[in-house]
Amino acid sequence: MLILDAISWILDPAHWDSVNYQAGIREELLAHLWVTLVSVVIVAAIALPVGLYIGHTGKGRRVAIAAANVVRAVPTFGLLSLLFILIGIGVGPGLLVFVLLGVPPLLAGAYAGLEAIDRQTIDAARAMGHTEWQILFRVELPLAAPLILGGLRSTVLQVIASVTLVSNFGINSLGDFILGGLASRDYVQVVAGSVLVTALALLVDALLALLERAAVPRGVSRGDGRTTARGRRVRTAPTGTPIAEGN
Amino acid sequence: MSIEFRHVRKTYPDGTTAVEDFSITIPSHSTTVFVGSSGCGKTTLLRMINRMVDPSAGQILIDDEDVSGIEPVALRRRIGYVMQNSGLLPHRSVIDNVATVPVLTGTPKAKARQDALGLLDRVGLDRSLANRYPGQLSGGQQQRVGVARGLAADPNILLMDEPFGAVDPIVREELQQELLRLQREIGKTTVFVTHDIDEAFLLGSQVVILERGGRIAQTGSPQEILANPASDFVAEFIGAKRGKRRLTAEERGSGDDVLLVDAGGYPAGLISAPEGRITLAGTGPLSRSISNKTDQAGDA
Amino acid sequence: MAWVLSHLGDLWTLTLAHVGLSVPAIVLGFVVSVPLGYAASRSRIARAVLFTVGNILYTIPGLALLVLVPVALGIPILNPINVVIALAIYAIAIMVRSAADAFASVDADVRQSATAQGFSAVQRFWRVELPLAGPVLLAGIRVVSVSTIALATIGALVGIPSLGSFFTDAYQRAFPTEAVVGIVLVLVLAAVFDVLLTAVGRLLMPWNRRSSALGARVSAVAVPAHAGGR
């Protein structure tokens, strides 16, 4: 069974070391993680401030949505190919693409998170005498945190998947096993590579999911309570509305 | 702390005029109620006091100082504000919610929390609720927390925007009574907004009835307005012409009470008439002539 | 430009191949997601299970899925069916959530009044709930369509012809024009599909003139924002 062969391939310690020009699992895995991390940090540096600005002030929302729609339509692989041809292989163009594709989910998470907050809560905070910055940091961010982290989760997955594709372009990643294996018809390696990158993605996603759940402030509804409508009316409580018991 | 509106006007960028030309003096240490139907600008006027809304023209003065010259954040920390859905911060406990403004102005957290506990007592809440979150409280409890929060910084002015609108009638009545009690104890300058004329008459020492565009239909004490509605609009609004406020007395047969019935024939209340005599408070000509009449009724 | 004109035949063939991969996936995605999404909207358990499974499947990077699907099904990797199935899996993973939201957005009062008037459950589904969920479903399918068309390019990496073939070829020849053409074609195809879907939506739901505004707003929130070419 191919899958069993693949698993034993992965478990073989020899495959974890780099031999001659063939990078081992350890090297590819670390490279993959490193590129992902750098990309996500850059994405956060761009998308968080912009997203928070859009969410807090309400301006630029249309542009953000339009941009997100366009980015969604662009084939990752195509953009990678183009940039690598134009600029040359190396981490630079790759990062450019990863960041470009990774910004929309986090951006959307940031402004959606802020928008989901009950306007009354923010109005009350302002009326009590919070400055605008205090409102952002003491009220909006805590309440928007779950959705922002949800956006981060999407971004990270997007980047992990994109990094898998750059095997032919001079960046080490777990995708090397898949594409390299295809080239050399070593199907065990191909499947092994797929299993590895899948496991990585699932693990990272699970961790971020836990983080997302932990970020929900005590006493608050998540604000996405619309999806079950079992005969009784489910009030869509915006994030940050205390759902009073018995009301 | 008295508040004065001078020729205040508010127009929005889309052209709608919420307030045309509003002038009034709000005396200190009493409750003034702005009452009117939706769209009359009452909430807009209230929110001009703590600069949540700025007027397009005119001035608002607190103790003769123009609020436009006061920094908004500092102003808001000095004014208590209670809104309709309590507006509590859902991710903070009840006690932290109450202590919000003192903490903002620099009071050490421990002291602020201690003071907040005292306020919970004041508004009739059990101290055990202090560490709960707003989402775990009933609507009425949340509103009480909102009032406590408004009082926390010991402001001289308290603004209340339909604070009891979202709770059921029984709870509303309790809260109204609490507020009356608080007013007697503390005596802050309170501006209260409502669309319910009965609530206005209950809570206000000065009632301001508003029409569209913030036009004042009548100002005065509840007694003055009820006794002398200034226009048809006011009369209609307070229901003077409607059956509910036009009462006639009916004999009940046995017993000492006289039944008051409204124009629709529904019982509205009872007047006690021991030995067939209705005593009218006051010493005007009417009281004397009614006393005479009931003497006759008592004879029969 | 000259290159485009001299290769019109290839452009057409690969576009068709691309459509041949995308359309079945989108259709399959829609057809499977609607009942699953309905179930998710009506039952907490169904929702938890479906969303979790969908999440896991969606988390798998595209290239890996293209390999794992044939392994799981016992088909050779170099079969176009794999791409269709992988694309369909993504489509379903995205669309189930959207469909669940769509059905949940139907006002409970409307459903109850329909039942009270005497609709059977089946009639109520077809005549009340499905039409009312329509706009959100449409928004969802539009997102799925765009994502699928972008994602189908990855098939080229495993040797399945699609518009992605332009990218592999362009890189081998260091010929940027070809890559640009490929990207443009993908975008155009996505736009065409979007227009078609909107038109179909307008045809089937004439009562919903505001569908574009609603769709834009809903697709930004109700559908996972990260549904993109992966």
Distance N terminus to C terminus of chain C? 29 Å
Unreliable sequence segments of chain C:
211-230
Q: Indicate the structural class of chain A.
A: mainly alpha
- The number of E-state strands of chain A comes to 0
Number of helix segments of chain A?
9
Going by helix content, strand content and strand pairing, the class of chain C is mainly alpha
Q: Give the CA-based shape of chain C.
A: elongated
Tell me the Rg of chain A in angstroms.
22 Å
Average pLDDT number of chain C: 85
DSSP E strands of chain C, number: 0
The oligomeric state is heterotrimer
Task: Tell me what the structure shows.
The complex is a heterotrimer of chains A (247), B (300) and C (230). Helices cover 70% and strands 0% of the residues of chain A. Chain A has 247 residues and is mainly alpha-helical. Chain B is 35% helix and 25% strand. Chain B is built from eleven helices and 13 strands. In chain B, the strands form three sheets. A six-stranded mixed beta sheet of chain B has the order 6-7-8-3-9-10, sandwiched between helices. Chain B is globular, with a radius of gyration of 23 Å. In chain B, β4 (57-62) and β5 form a beta hairpin. In chain B, α5 crosses α6 (139-151). Chain C is mainly alpha-helical and 230 residues long. In chain C, α2 (8-42) packs across α5 (80-104) and α6 (108-117) runs antiparallel to α7. Chain C is 80% helix and 0% strand. Chain C starts with a helix and ends in a 9-residue tail after the last helix. The chains are: A mainly alpha (247), B alpha/beta (300), C mainly alpha (230). At the A-C interface, α3, α4, α5, α7 and α8 of A face α2, α3, α4, α5 and α6 of C.
